[in-house]
Amino acid sequence: MPARDSYHDSVKHALMKAGWTITHDPLRLSWGGKDMYVDLGAERLLAAERAGQQIAVEIKSFTNASEMNDLEQALGQYLVYRAVLAENEPNRRLYLAIPNSVLVNVFEEPLGQLLRKTYPVALVGFNPTTEEIVQWLPRID
Amino acid sequence: MPARDSYHDSVKHALMKAGWTITHDPLRLSWGGKDMYVDLGAERLLAAERAGQQIAVEIKSFTNASEMNDLEQALGQYLVYRAVLAENEPNRRLYLAIPNSVLVNVFEEPLGQLLRKTYPVALVGFNPTTEEIVQWLPRID
Question: Is the peptide bond before B138 cis (omega within 30 degrees of 0)?
Fold first, then answer.
């Protein structure tokens, strides 16, 4: 299993505060003999609808020297996992969890907007200090 | 400008042998104030049609310890460049150049096939020893 991202526990706590139950830590994916580990799997039961929402969450800190390298690496990993998840568990949606400051500085800038328009990337911004979810892009309700 | 891939000259020679003229080394892309450098830009004039074919070529050696990391990183970088190229130069096609042994071992295996089916990745396999192009996927004529 790969090394845990330094924000692993922050995101876990933030999801739990927001009503999610952590069901997988990590979530294993497999395709053609290759194993992959998404950081977290989580589930939420909506009282009103009695329908379970399932997500997978890959956490990235964007702490490397090059923001472009971080972006390319995060996008590549997300899209590999997304392709496999769509085959293995089509009802589980994959989110890329990043500090909300990164979401604003990288993904709301022109290049980030172009990438979000071109590829199916879902984001969740969290506050590492308060351990709270700040926003889901696209929204999840 | 980023460090050159170790196979840079091999690919350059292979393209020239195959009738391409290297027009950019590297090819600069820009979007929203961010600069990116694709390894090579090349052009070929077809005598019969008098139409120039233009390509951009990003070279990856896949020499890291983890094949999965190499794959994620190459895919992410390719898809970032592709999105920007589609805006800047829509007639120039982007290829990911990799040793043909990597093309066979990674991209013709189940995970690689799934990724090629899911995302618009064009590949060119080269032989680093003979410095020849082995195959284009999809074919280019």
Answer: yes
